[in-house]
Amino acid sequence: MSMHMTIGQMAREAGVSTRTLRHYEEQGLLAPQRTDAGYRVYGDADARQLAWVLALRACNVPLPTIRRLINAPDEDLASALRAHLRSLEEQGTSLDAAIARTRAALATVERMEDMSTKDAFEMMKEQGLRDFEQEFGEEARSLYGDEAIDASNVRMMALTKDEWDAKELLEESIKVQLRIAMATDDPASDAAQELVRMHKRWIDLHWGEGYDPEQYFALAEGYLADPRFVKYYDSAAGEGATEFLVKAVRASRR
Length: 254
Hints:
This protein is mainly α.
């Protein structure tokens, strides 16, 4: 059965932003259908194509090269990946990670003629975890240890599509609840404490339920010191949203 997703749904499944999807479309890497009202609709072919775009980007292949390759026959794509691999190997050991990803992508091209929708989404999920590692991994591993982060990654990869969708829906619901709670102007309000319960459920999905509660409070306190988290919550619910969330978490300790 074919699927049809909005740009928001596709972004959540792929672990990228809607801005990224629009940029890829502008670059000629994606061509979703449009509804009569002008909304983008993504199908199976779009999911497979996006999976390849993300895989090639993970190999440090430039977007213009990806645009030239994505519609090429498999043997042409394999040849291009071999050439890219030789180029990476010539640049030295600092590119070991990109070399490894390129080898993996090349093996996939040589092994499969077509990628199933399930395989495409598994690749997207893996890419989302790689993106997290690239942006937050070093700091997260320093704070919580390799074992905790590795366990979180295993939990995320084990989620079924329904479970993944539920996690993504909870994340969006937290943003809505944050706006509702901020309207009370009271971090101890019922709405604010419901926000904390929702936020903790989302953290539980990543960390499991056996961690020290103090780690959760420490995580929240760290949001204010990290511009990336401030940008994430403030852009979703307005200026001061991150500070309000942290105050609500503090209030939950009383």
